[in-house]
Amino acid sequence: MYEHVSRDRIQVDNTLTDDEIGELTQDPELVYLQFSEPFEGSRLDALNDRFFAVRPDVWLRVFGHYGAAPDMSFLDRMTHVTKLSLDCLTEAANLDAIARLSKLRALKLDIYSLPNLEALYAIPDSLEYLHVGKTKSKKPDLYAIQRFSQLKTLELFGQNKNIDAMRYLSRLETVALGSTTLEDANALAQLPRLRSLELSNLGLRDMSGLAELKGLRRLKLWNVKLPGELAFISGLRDLQELTLDAMSAIEELPPLSSLHALRSVRLENLKNLKGLDELEGAPALEAFAHYHVGKMNPEDYLSVLRNPNVRRVNIGFPSGKKYEAFEQLALAHGKIPRSWYD
Question: pTM (2 decimals)?
Answer without folding.
Answer: 0.95
